[in-house]
């Protein structure tokens, strides 16, 4: 009976050892498999991170190139705008000069403030030998016109007859001929410009007005808020 009990214990112990060995072997196998899988996953992740990093670097370099190109194009746009601004100013100046020339040629109507100067013959004194000493001559008219232009007049007319760049004035007895059109005295000279400046230029001491008065010419002037001068007709 004792021998059978001992053998029974050995069998049970062997079974326990066998089960424990199987469990340990299975656990080791699972652990090895998990480590392999983890190793493979970690390696794949590293590769993916490297790929993403390379893509990011490539995108940053491309973005830097595009940004540099954008700055270059912006600089070029600024240069073009500056060139256009200069051209615009040149065209504006040309247009302004053209308008001045057209005005000078009498090809365009003008209006603005200005001055009206009237030159009239003085009363003749029978005791005087020469009646011509009491009438307005072309050189009197020329003095007024020249002074008005010097004072900044942009357009001038005599009795409504607009003066051009090649106008001529001729004295024929008691009348004056302006570009072939005769006008009797008094002669109204109208000029567009700064009336204060033109008046001051004519009234300077020893100036045009004093000279005309000394020649027995009746000199009057009137500052006008608006003077309208029509363009000349025909060839200029």
Automatic annotation (TrEMBL):
InterPro entries: AH/BAR_dom_sf, DUF881
Family matches, as Pfam families: DUF881
Domain of life: Bacteria
Similarity annotation: Belongs to the UPF0749 family.
Protein's UniProt name: Uncharacterized protein YlxW (UPF0749 family)
